[in-house]
Write a structure and sequence with these properties.
The structure is a homodimer. Chain A is an alpha/beta fold. Chain A folds into three domains: 3-87, Arc Repressor Mutant, subunit A, CATH 1.10.10; 91-126; 128-281, Glucose-6-phosphate isomerase like protein, domain 1 (Rossmann fold), CATH 3.40.50.10490. The first copy, chain A, has helices spanning 10-20, 26-37, 39-44, 47-54, 58-67, 73-87, 91-100, 106-127, 130-142, 155-167, 203-214, 229-232, 252-281; strands spanning 146-149, 172-175, 192-196, 218-223, 236-239, 244-245, 248-249. Chain A has a five-stranded parallel β-sheet with strand order 2-1-3-4-5, sandwiched between helices. In chain A, helix 9 (130-142) crosses helix 13 (252-281) and helix 10 (155-167) runs parallel beside helix 13 (252-281). The N and C termini of chain A lie far apart (70 Å). At the A-B interface, helix 1, helix 2, helix 3, helix 6 and helix 7 of A face helix 3, helix 6, helix 8, helix 9 and helix 10 of B. Chain A binds a DNA duplex through helix 2 and helix 5. Chains A, B: Residues 136-273 form the SIS domain. Chains A, B: Keywords: DNA-binding, Transcription, Transcription regulation.
DNA sequence: GCCAGATTAGAATAAAAATTCCAAAATCAC
DNA sequence: GTGATTTTGGAATTTTTATTCTAATCTGGC
């Protein structure tokens, strides 16, 4: 019954999955995806637990195991279990180990950035003022159009915001500076601007922020310090203290703040829309 | 039968063991010692496997579990298993939590994203294979030009890479799709492509990755699962298991991986350049 | 829209594991 | 050394889990 060409390690399982997964029918593909996404759970769960989590019947999971070359689930689980104990010395020790080896290897550098990212995220909860965040959401929710301004290091933040707002169907203009075309003049009194910049502050961003203020548009700032020019202009300040590794600043905290902001604004706008509709109906 | 004063965590189990182990008879002490020495095996083994390794009868192991306050082995194993998988709680409970706390206050949402980001980062250390990372750095270091491909949700990652590589003075082309202009034809055999895409995978990204392979360019993939089409194409896989909050995927881990990759490549290229110069001088 | 083949769901069955039980052995007090 | 008490080993039982089987459903070609 049991093929002797059954995978012998988790890596083999994975490569087999990536080879075959295209030719799998729907349910088996579900199994493949679930196992690929949750390899650790295979070691400590039963067929029915896994199949339920994967949204399939136990028998489907069974076929999945067999299609991979195992005699059944038990054989597959054995492979996952033997790898399991190697994983046990967890993240903490792993990180330490990498630190010892110095900044030589890319993995050590990765560990460094991971650690810094975690610290930045931790900081974020204290550096962002909840009241300011709520005010920002309020302003952005009522804006006709939201303008996103941020260049160079800040551009990933604005482009992520652009993606999120598009998905949320919030009218948004991403000021990308492509082709040297300035979009400044598209800013109107009912609009709001999210300006993202960190020290040393981008001239271009400050200029556009200034124009926004002149036109009586709302201004929300994602920036690093209270001394930021954006704050002085009277922007609603969302402060992110991001840490550096070498010459590079991590962006984890800024991105997390950005996505939270976007989702909150999306929810707030929906609520606003709903209330407006109710008003009309009555 | 089951005491409700059963240990709830592995730590509790250990403290109970150290309290009681003196008063245990010989065989039960053997069990205690074995569990203390091999906590990782408890989660993935059966009673008979453990009892055999500990040099006792299954029934003795059974009594050991009960003397610790558990109803039996199964209950004890559950504690050991959940303690492990708690490190990566499943989406289901996460999402539920979010719904409970609601999108009530933006701060609550922010807290959620921070938490998810921290987890993703933690997991990044185990999901990225150090060998693959090194291989990726090697390929990118020797590339004449590095192409960055990633759209929509992945675009912040590629734009961040673009920024970093520019700062590091690494020749880079960011395939942005602006103006509908395709940059595919700029990919040449000595080049390398960093393709970033997560399920559901972007057609456009896969197309360009495919072209890269056809032209014999190196291909590095930042993606989420081994089942990713990029992996099947033979790309060097850097796997990031990012968690979703609602419909949105955090990007903390991907960004951290990206910046680590960029800095490592920058360093490797400098070293390569230096070695070339030395060769010329001599 | 109908048929052939593939795929699936769910019940039925087989296997394996946990748990209990009890007689045999060991330990201890006297 | 003897009897009472604790501890142990191993088989018997119960429960859980893996696995198989079959009827029903779906899918793709014509």
């Amino acid at each position: 019954m049991s093929d002797d060409n059954a995978p012998k390690s988790i890596d083999e399982v994975f490569s087999r999955i990536s080879q075959q997964s295209d030719s799998f029918p729907k349910r088996l593909k579900q199994c493949a995806d679930f196992v690929a996404a949750n390899p650790d759970r295979v070691a400590v769960s039963t067929v029915s637990e896994l199949s339920e989590s994967a949204g399939v019947q136990p028998s489907a999971f069974m076929r999945f195991c067999q299609d991979l070359g195992f005699s059944g689930f038990s054989q597959m689980q054995k492979v996952f279990r033997s790898d399991y104990s190697q994983k046990w010395p967890d993240y903490g020790t792993r990180l330490e180990k990498l630190r010892e080896h110095g900044t030589e290897s890319p993995s050590a550098l990765l560990a460094e950035f991971v650690e810094v990212g975690r610290m930045s995220l931790e900081n974020l909860m204290t550096s962002v003022d909840p009241a300011a965040l709520e005010e920002a959401v309020k302003q952005l929710a009522r804006a006709r159009t939201i303008h996103l301004v941020g260049f160079r290091r800040a551009f990933p933040v604005t482009s992520y915001l652009g993606y999120a707002f598009e998905k949320l169907e919030v009218p948004t203009i991403l000021h990308s500076g492509i082709g040297g075309i300035k979009l400044d003049h598209t800013i109107q009194p009912d609009d709001a601007v999210i300006a993202v910049t960190f020290a040393p502050y981008s001239e271009q961003t400050l200029e556009i922020a200034d124009i926004a203020k002149q036109r009586d548009a709302d201004l929300v700032a994602i920036t690093d310090l209270v001394t930021s020019p954006l704050v002085q202009m009277g922007a609603v300040p969302l402060l992110v203290a991001e840490l550096d590794v070498g010459a590079f600043r991590a962006l984890s905290a800024s991105l997390s703040l950005a996505i939270s902001l976007a989702v909150s604004v999306g929810a707030a706008r929906e609520k606003l829309q709903f209330e407006k509709n109710m008003l009309h109906d009555n």
